[in-house]
Design brief:
Length: about 160
Amino acid sequence: MSKALTSFALVAVLSALLMALSLAVARHGYPFGAFGVKRLDGIADAGTFLPLAAVYFLSAVLMMILPLRAASIVLTNAADALFWTVVALFAAIVGCLLARWAFGQGSVLLSLLNWRFLFGAAVVGAHLGMNELRRNILLRSLFVVIFAAATLACLFWSFPV
């Protein structure tokens, strides 16, 4: 948990510095500053959590039903990487928004209230609770169904903005 928080904080600070640099360069009238802002804003979309959550929840289903050795392969090669991707992506979004807020765009912090960020929070919560789910057979059976439904919902359901 502390490693995730440390990684979150570091990525948020680094992306905030990059956004602040881009905003400062753009404020001085250089066109490549706006290009940097546009690139950083390209990843700052809550909708990018949907496909990541679909792949993570599919790997969670596999971890619940596969034997221990195969489940550990899925955990180390898929679920961990997706978890860290979600942490880094959310940290980059927060860092970019904090830099915009520091440059006087106060209303950008309201975009953190987008409900699609719940998919990222669901991935983080599922990953942090995965050990408990593997130990308890009742919870494992229940969460196989929940994770399968979440996979299908993230993949096929159109969530309106």
